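Hi W.,

Here's what went into the run:
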Amino acid sequence: MSAAAAVLALVGAAFAFVGAIGLLRMGTFFERVHPPTMGTTFGLGLVLAGSALASWLRDGSLPWLEILVALFMFVTTPVTYMLLSRAAMHRDGPGEEPRA
Amino acid sequence: MIPVPVILVLAQALLALAMGCALFRLLRGPRAQDRVLALDTLYVNAMLLVLVSGMRASSTVYLESALVIGMLGFVSTAAAAKFLLRGEVIE
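Here's what came out:
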């Protein structure tokens, strides 16, 4: 495997890690919705790009499974976060909530 | 120059730490929606960990398990959010 694929995976993992730290450190729920999207956009995209590069160099064929995972996740992740935010607004209202 | 397996182990360690952060928020998170959000982050990071493990093992089987983790995670998070929204999942 080439070093480029491994470096892509490492940068993606760093994005996901920063997003998880943000999930831990932000104060309110509506602030906490934002950081994990770093992991689900750039983190997932870079790790999948590294994996696709590795499997393309190994097999020489188009990396169908990586493309499938990327399509599925990029379609479903916004749906999840919109449903969650709507549930939080329904439960608490759009105003201020106590910081925790 | 750092060898390739060390880079991949480093990426796995970062993803494991991210899973630890999400687990902490899952246990602590003051309200139910925080816990569901933490569970969502946890499964995404687990999926990335499986993908990096697949790169280390240079095998295609890991990709299929990552796809299954993604599908189950999406369905469970959507069902939990729907339950928080209405009080029932299918109406």
